[in-house]
Amino acid sequence: MTSELSIFKLITEASPVVQIVMLILVLASVISWTFIFSKYKEIRRAEDTSEEFEERFWSGIDLADLYRQLTREDHGTEGLENIFMAGFKEFARLRQQPNIGPDAVMEGTQRVMRVALNRELENLDERLPFLATVGSTSPYVGLFGTVWGIMNSFRSLGNVKQATLAMVAPGISEALVATAMGLFAAIPAVMAYNRYSTDIGRLANRYEAFTEEFLSLLHRQAHTK
């Protein structure tokens, strides 16, 4: 209990600049943890949705029936579902137009699916740059607070004739708290960024593989009917 009170006292009695640094780091840490939890749920949901959709897609169901089922479902579509729906809708629309060849149909379908794929990947990457920024800058922000606090401690020594450790210890301690807070904000952000970047990269490969396989199926349909 004593250590907790002493740390709280160091924070409340720190210089205004060091307190501002601490406040920035606390806000960055809170926002980072919010993004970490929300991104974790988003990635898990994307993985589960992709697995469920691929099972339906490769079950032998008619593509038109699958498209109609997805449009009638109450929950919103995402991930592979959006890529499939964008591609199949454009494919069906182009095939209904007169005097348009199979190659032109496939070019238009591929273009729309690529746009849908890029949009899904952008959604997955959302908020990751913030985690990268917090992870790379928080230690330096904390270090700035540390340097500022130590400077104030040694500046106060110029007004006394005999310096003692007890005189500089509080200032140095509050400065080191800023460094600790910077690391506390940076470490989880870096770990989450690395983990989620790997997960998103795996999802991106899955999305791209499905896109190529689906385009192959549509290509056969476009040239056989």
Automatic annotation (TrEMBL):
Gene Ontology cellular component list: plasma membrane
UniProt membrane topology term: Multi-pass membrane protein
Official protein name in the record: Tol-Pal system protein TolQ
Highest taxon listed in the record's lineage: Bacteria
One protein family per Pfam: MotA_ExbB
Occurrences of domain MotA/TolQ/ExbB proton channel (ranges): 80-208
Residues spanning the membrane: 20-37, 128-151, 171-193
Gene coding for it: tolQ
Function, as annotated: Part of the Tol-Pal system, which plays a role in outer membrane invagination during cell division and is important for maintaining outer membrane integrity.
UniProt key word Membrane: yes
Annotated family: Belongs to the ExbB/TolQ family.
GO biological process, one term: protein import
Subunit structure: The Tol-Pal system is composed of five core proteins: the inner membrane proteins TolA, TolQ and TolR, the periplasmic protein TolB and the outer membrane protein Pal. They form a network linking the inner and outer membranes and the peptidoglycan layer.
Keyword Cell inner membrane part of the UniProt annotation: yes
InterPro entries for the chain: ExbB/TolQ_transport, MotA_ExbB_proton_chnl, Tol-Pal_TolQ
Alphabetical keyword list: Cell cycle, Cell division, Cell inner membrane, Cell membrane, Membrane, Transmembrane, Transmembrane helix
Localization in the cell: Cell inner membrane; Cell membrane
